[in-house]
Amino acid sequence: MASSSRTASLSLQFIIVGGGIAGLASAFTLRKAGHQVLVLEKASGPAKVRGGLRSPPNMSRILDRWGLGPELAQYAIKGSEISFRLAETGEKVGAMVFHKEIMKGFGADWLYVQYGDVCSWLYALAIEAGATIRYECEVISIDPYGVSATLSTGETIKSDLILGADGLTSLVRRSVVGRTSLSSPNASQLYIINGSVKTEVVKRHEILRDLLREPEMHMWMGDRYVIYGHAVHGYQDYSVTIAAPLRRPYIRSNGDVEVPDFDVDRNSLEPRLQRLLDLMEISDVATPPSQEPLESLVHDSGKVILVGSAANLIPPCQTQDAATGIEDAATLGNLFSRLRLSEQIPSLVSAYEEIRQPRLAEVLPSELRKQQQVTLPANSALRVIRDSGLRAAMAQAVLDWEQADEELLREQWDEYIRMFDYDADEVADDWWIKWGKLMDVEQQNRQEESIRQQRLSGAQMQISIARVLDRRMGMRA
Ligand SMILES: Cc1cc2nc3c(=O)[nH]c(=O)nc-3n(C[C@H](O)[C@H](O)[C@H](O)COP(=O)(O)OP(=O)(O)OC[C@H]3O[C@@H](n4cnc5c(N)ncnc54)[C@H](O)[C@@H]3O)c2cc1C
């Protein structure tokens, strides 16, 4: 399906709070759909972070549709496998193989991309489409009824609709659901620490060179923590992500990202991991979100909408967090490209929520479950079951496609298929076919009725004038 060139015949003003992946992507799709877009971002420019993102097929497919195929071909790395290892020994106990026969069915790849690359591509798309992006603009409050955003400078900007794309600690979300939805950290909660090591540095270390050999991701599963790594940016960087509890609360200093005191006994790690952690440059530390999906993605006024991490609450650096932000943007652009009359705005806003809520309600638990499986406590019975299951599955999964056990593949892929096969544009198109056309017909009926009423009252007026004239003529006669 090619990216649609359909534009709305009624153009709205959108303010987007936050210019991360979800904000820039929404700026692009809404501008392309024919709307005026102003992005307000507190940072000084597009993020240049060197950490890595996993782009699952449901995200890669949309990026490709948006015309980013050449950039992906140049910088993204096509994944062939995720290897599950024990963090303490490095032993490979499991594998998720991206058999090309399965991936062909998705029509898109599992890719490793650099966070900064994705931000700069989306920034270029949004600017080229004509969006306005203002950096160093911190939004300090929004008025959901007056539909305005106030900046730290005191300036207030009005619009027709506001998108909250301001991430996990979203200020806009507070006004939509009345709470930040970030649970207060406790000892067992996982913090996400993101960083990278330059490939030239990795190559200088004999024990690390093997990590670059295959386009695969290594997932080192530890005692209540997980560390994963893969190459990004055309093999120029090696991305490392740690999800671990902290020994003491992390205080974010102004601007600089400090090394948090994560609760992992470094001496217990396999030698490669110890070396990687020594070399890693940290680019971001994220606070754990709440595990409850949001009850609403839209403010009662119908004028404020949440997208990306502000809406999905998926822990950062999981498989689907950036992907769902991309899906949100595709859904909004698709729906709002059909806008013809201002009466349709509430229905399109509700449609966004109706489409995205069930998707997020499926993705969030799936992501949390996967995170839980790879961070099971040492010596727990569940961990023993997990490892023996992984070992048994690996014996099958690494086989050629022809020889692999069909039942096992189906079991292994069942959930992934639901995640990867989702096509945000197709879902929005389906919604339109089912409900949107109806909305159009209703609108048309209402318009025809109003024209009929006008004609009727025009005709009645003519009759009255004729009667008055008749009466006058009669009087004269
Ligand atoms: C600097 C940074 C680096 C990251 N690096 C990685 C990575 O390497 N790998 C990975 O998997 N994930 C990374 N993430 C997380 C990842 O971006 C998100 O999990 C996911 O992509 C969701 O994106 P988002 O656009 O919804 O939210 P975010 O990426 O959190 O973007 C939100 C944006 O809103 C801006 N903002 C917040 N509040 C305000 C306000 N009041 N006024 C104006 N602007 C505001 C923020 O500055 C930010 O740019 C990173 C996030 C950030 C912010």
TrEMBL record:
> Which GO terms label this protein's molecular function in UniProt?
FAD binding; monooxygenase activity
What is the name of the protein in this document?
FAD/NAD(P)-binding domain-containing protein
Which Pfam families does the record cross-reference, listed alphabetically? FAD_binding_3 (PF01494)
Can you tell me where the transmembrane regions are?
Answer: none
Species source reads Neolentinus lepideus HHB14362 ss-1
The family annotation for this protein states: Belongs to the paxM FAD-dependent monooxygenase family.
Q: What keywords is this UniProt entry annotated with?
A: FAD, Flavoprotein, Monooxygenase, Oxidoreductase
| Record bears the keyword Flavoprotein | yes
